[in-house]
Each structure stands twice: as C-alpha cells, then as structure tokens.
User: What shape does this take?
Amino acid sequence: MKDLTPNNSFQIMAKPYGPVCNLDCAYCFYRYKKDQLGKDHNWRMDYETLEIFVRDYISSQPKGYPVQFVWQGGEPSLLGLDFFRQAVELQKRYKKPSQEITNAFQTNAILIDDKWAAFFKENNFLVGVSIDGPKDIHDHYRVDSRKKGSFDRVMDGVENLRKYNVDHNALVCVTDISSKDPLHVYSFLKKNFDFIQFIPVVEEKGFKRKAPFLKDTKKWVINKGKKHSDLVTSWSTTPEGYGIFLNKIFDEWVRYDVGRVFVQIFDTTLANWMGYPPTLCIFNKTCGRALVLEHNGDIYACDHFVYPEYRIGNIKERNLAELAQVPSQLRFGRDKWNRLPRQCLKCEYLHLCFGGCPKNRFIFTKDGKEELNYLCKGYSAFFEHTSQAMGFMANELSNHRSPANIMERFG
Assistant: This one.
C-alpha cells in the first residue's frame, strides 16, 4: 500500500463542549459521559485551552500538509458563534506562511440559522449533518429530551446551509431499524446530499462501564458461546443486516450515481483496491493517529476510546506533538494489526479491511480465537459483492478514465 502521509502526522477531533447536546438520541455513545462528572460540571472549553490547542496543533503538523480542525460533540453549536469566531482568529494568528487551514464542523443542525450559515460560508467550513434518513427513520432514535423527533428542525438547518451554499454532507448512523430499509434511506439521502458517510451503530451492552479492546480474560470467558445479538444493544445493526444495507445501496449507486453521489465507504474501498491510503481510518492497517481533545485539554486515543484507560495526557501539561507520540498511543495504533486473529490474516479481504475498528473486535473466530470484528460477515459480504465493480473502476482510474464509465456497463 502506498503511504502518502508523513509518519508523524495525526489528526485531532475537538470536543469543546464535551458530551453536552440538545438531543437525547437513544443510541448515543457519548452523551452519557455527562453524568460521570455531575450536572454542575463546566463543560465549556475556556480561551486558554482553545489557544493552546490551536497554537500547538498548527505547529505540530508537517510542513506542506493542510491542518484540518474537526469540531464535534455532543453538539458544538451550543457553545455559540463567538467561540468559533475566536477559534478562527487564533488559526489566523498562528498559521504558518502558505499553510492551509481547514475546518470541519459536525452538528445535528438544529441551531443552524442564517448567522451560523453565513459564518460557515465566510470561513469555508465543511459541515457534517447528523441525519439518519427520511423522517420515519430519523425520528425513531434521534429525539430530544421530550422524546420528540428532530427531523423537521434538522432539515430547517440544512435548508439554511443550502441557502448560503455551505459545503455539507450527511453523517448517517445505520441502526437495526434503518438497516432493514436501505433503498428508502438512500433515496432520501441522494436527493438532499452529494456526500454521504454511513456509520454502523455497534455498541456492546456494557459500553458505558467498560472500555473496549482491553486485554480482559474475564470478558472473553463470559462472552464464550453467547449469540452475537446477546452482546450488543438493541439498536445495534446486525453484521448481516449491515452487509445487505451496503450491497443494496451500492447496486443502486453503481448503476445511476457514480460521480454524482459520493459514499465514503465506497470511495475508501476503491482507494484500498488501488493501493492508496483509505480515507476511512477503520480500514487502515494501523490506527492511533486520530486523537480526541476534550473540553478541559485532556487527550484520548480515539473518539470511541474516551475512557480513563486511554487517556494520554493534557495539552496544558505536555506538548500536543509529544502526546501524539507517547509509547502507549503508538502501541494502541500498532495493536490494530498486531492483535489480528489468524482468520483475518488468512482472509482474502484483509487488504480492504485490516480487521476494522478495534472497538468492534469483540467476537470469536470460527476456531474460537478472540478479537474478531463484530461486523466481519457484513464487511465480507460487501467486499465480495462489490469486487467485480471495484476492479472495473480501479482499472478505469489506472488508465486515466472515469470510474463513472461503470454505469454504462452495469446500468
């Protein structure tokens, strides 16, 4: 695989308001963390922490490579516009000559009015909108504290983004409900978004209490012999369901939408077919280069690993570049490959998957070994189903032709 990025590069996902959110989505894996420090805790990132983060993040990035700030939560828009105006001003202050700075903002879009949209456009923000599909799908889980669906309010925010011509995409959680109706979901999404990211919802039943991917012998003894459905929450997609979901959408996409609608998992799979680094971290050979910054300056190994066991340090106490290189974090990144079971190492799709996200590696292989990815059957079904089409598109690209030519062949 061609590695086009420097070894010391890393990304930070900043959560400047921690897990605070104006929705109460049933499947949220982060909002519950608010209860751990109590209702009176001040989750707001202060100016000192913001300045340290912006300064050190910019200075830590390799020369010649863009610096991408990613703002997430919880719901970051709850901080208000002034916080992000400060962030942009700090970026301008610490920016190196000829250095490119970009911003991505992940939001449920409920608070996105004209002022927000104008700010995003003026400062070239890419906005990721959390939306699970049409109203009947979206409102099943994405509700507020009164259990009222949020779809209409989200679409109002999307309309404001469109009005100001803000670059935006769809962040789509795939649950037990949505995975059963893929074309209904996709039909809505492609009418409203050009860029789509599917996020399979997979949560172990004890995820609020126990960190994932730990060497935990007791856990494996307890899980031995259990059905996969007994290990995950009710809103989690099944492996088979996720595979069918992707395949049905891929068949629609490959006939009508190549070059017009961009689906992240399709693009990153094609990149892996061609030997390029995937844009999706779960399909990289190693990980550990996408860290999380909490509101108080704490750095964690990854968005799904914000547990005490994976806390690396604090940017007020140690330089960010040093934190990204601590031995425990480098080991965490290598473990994605080093701890793969033999079944994965012998798999024909290893070069496309590399074991998937470590968070989801909690089931057993066929020969009873630990740490197989829960979504293995789904990914395998997807890779097998799409192999002919991916091979064709990879060949077109290699010969400087458009992959959209596939629509003439498979249409």
In short: The radius of gyration is 21 Å. The longest strand covers residues 101-107.
